[in-house]
Amino acid sequence: MSLVEHLSELRRRVAISIVAVMLGSAVGFWFAPAIIELLLRPVPGGRVVFLSLTGGFSVYLRIALIVGLLLALPVVLYQLWAFVAPGLTARERRAALPWIPMTVVFFILGAAVAYVTLPYAVEFLLSFQIIDTLESMLTAEAYFGFVTTIFLVFGVTMQFPILLVLLAKLGILSVDRLRHTRRYVLLGIVIFAVVVTPGTDPISPVIMSSVMYLLYEGTILVLGRTGEDALVSGRGQDG
Q: Which of 78, 80, 103, 181 is most buried, by the most CB atoms less than 10 A from its CB?
């Protein structure tokens, strides 16, 4: 393809992805009241307030967009794969293709972990109230901003093992290297979790770093059992 044809192809696939997100967001907007009630369960009394005229509508839009992204994720990933795949070698396509659907699974896993984490984070952050002196009046904008951020962060972070597997299958990483760098990876995971989690609570980083490290060890176990080291060595000898 020429540059113009590549740009035209990219524009077409981006447009399809945007339409998919919009359709998913319409579904999310319809179910927003039930989702809002579900996400408010960790809040004492299950109520928040909005202080601006557009506050309630912006919360609906935020929830709808997150749901839309989640529902459209398979379509978006397919469009990305269809655009990138022609530029990959046959070996790279074989290595990457089986793991593309797994990104959806791990994103949902991250969202589930975030939902489990949310009550503990809220409880910790609200524990600093002092009756009649320092009390919380949670606004819908602030609360759902925190909730949607933590869901997105956990969902994206859970792609960590897929990245490791792809790097291993492409011969960039080996199981031995993953094993020998455990302590440094653990330190990096803890620092990363502290930086990216949106709240100042200690609960979210602890849960995130624990899950990420378990996934790291699980990735080493899976790669070791599938003989990835032998595959990498064989590719090196073939080269």
A: 103
